[in-house]
Amino acid sequence: MSNRLARETSPYLRQHADNPVDWYPWGAEAFDRSRTEDRPLLLSVGYSACHWCHVMAHESFENSETAALMNELFVNVKVDREERPDVDTIYMQAVQGMTGHGGWPMTVFLTPDGVPFYGGTYFPPDDRLGIPAFPRVLRAAAEAYSTRRGDILAAAERMRAALAPPRLPAGAAPASAQLDDAARTLVEQTDRRHGGFGGAPKFPHPMALDLLLRRHRVTGDATMLDAAVITLDAMARGGIHDQVGGGFHRYSVDAEWAVPHFEKMLYDNAQLVQPYLHAYQVTGRDDLAEVCTTTLDYLAREMRLPSGGFAASQDADSPGGEGAYFVWRPGELRDLLGEEDGALAARVFGVTPGGNFEGGATVLSLPLPLDRVAEALAMPSAELYARVERIRAALVAARAARPAPARDDKVITAWNALALKAFADAGAALERDDYLAIARHTADFLLEAVASDGRVMRTWKDGEARIIGFLEDVAHLADALLTTYEASGEVRFFNAALQLCEQIVDRYRDSDGTYYDTASDAEALIVRPRTIEDNPVTSGQAAAASAFLRMHAFTGEQRWHDRGLEIIRALAAAVPRVPMALGGLAAAMEMAVEPVREIAIAGDVRSAATLALVNAVHHRFDPNRVLAWGPADSVPLLADRPLVGGAPAAYVCEHFVCAAPVTSVEGLLLLLSASAVRTG
Fold this sequence. Notes:
By secondary structure, the chain is of the alpha+beta class. The protein has 25 helices and 19 strands.
């Protein structure tokens, strides 16, 4: 018989609907029972793409004896961390404070008031490698609550106090030098041999990479560009990058990017589009653009839902075992491709008899750039590229016949906003009408499905939006809609972004200028959480600051500059110290400390001359600019911008002081090139 989780929309929660555990979803019903029966709660937090979450579910939650013990001793609550980042943030902080580490699955024991008194992560079914068996942990936690109640409650209250977010300092005015110091720190932390930052495991850190590109643009410092490109190249050639189907896995278990943890997350792929796109714009290298487009093509092909939204993730596991969908052996290549192409595929993708993964299999990579392989084979590069593309097509078709990893097809607003921004940004920069069409469709879907009643919701699935949205949902959607407006010239996206910015101030900002993760009308938890770091999605605070400062540039209203600066001032001093954690904030901070260009293009949106001017703006990597175009006077920046001699005209302004309008692409490029790099 199914438990209460069968009524939930989260695929992760539904995976546990047939457990013998008497699961509750997070909510009043579970806490009411806990208080009535004076029984502690067991909170289990995980997510669909989590390998060890599935392991613990199979070992413990599907075990009838373990489930009976859980049901006897606790009120059991299951949470999808992707649905409830507020719950996850609070209790992960508690587990890290208790044990010194964290991760998923997360297991926390709570008083009936929701205050944690013990916790950990994965617990095996029997004592193993110094980790106590889960049944032993269950009995110990229940006994402690029963026999040492006073100590437990006192410790719980101390924990509640420790979990309260500290008041942020007022801070000082941010400075450009802080961003330069942050970029130099990233250069020093870069692994010059393998790319990335630090050792294994390695994560992509897309906002840190983008910060290096941004500061190179401002300073002209070649070491910053070099550090970014080393990492982008290493990831693109590594096993973390799906060499067959495109897109990136979550992280690499080694320092060489060779073997990944195989889940694919929407947020990783959406955020990685930007540094690859921007590196292409800076260097002109087509291979970097190709990584950008194949990542977007993967999202469009495998993660896009019929509704217009995007699924949250693909699992690390598949029916053949972890990674089985993605790995190859030499014999499989020969059987599929024939001797000659099979041998070539093995050489190109690094497939060896011993392999680099379990069972002698190999995670595909590109050990050498294709041009070097062509040189070694005395083969024209064009011929090798063509053969590799045919091989890839054959591998894609063959892999499609394998049992595929499961997909978590709930729509998460913040992550979908990141995808929306990626498609809009790349579609405009690369003149890809198909990407722009996806961006428009996604924006329309989100505005209708999760933001249609005056407030943004966190998730959508099967026609139902659930859970009041968090700051990251509203802020990322506002920021993405501004990018979609810049890419399309459709003012409805600007107007929607403006409404969302108003909503952020009204519902997520306290009277003292503090911004919280949860809305003022959201469910009250033991503390009101506030996240300032990228983890791994750019923080809601950073996205809000970006949206506010861009809105200031579009409207000229000082209040938006003030709102953005009040977020940045409190955190600016930390940016040079922990740039990997605050890369998103650094991007917003750049708009506060560097000159911002306000560009308005007057002209019929259907005119080829207008579009030529628009495209000239989009082709350049210039993150410190806003672009207004579309119907006359539809956006404040467009007000009083007439055509010149009947021709479309571009107005380039800096801090609202404008140069004479130009009507030619050449004249516009001349204005845009002026003072592109800081001097002196």
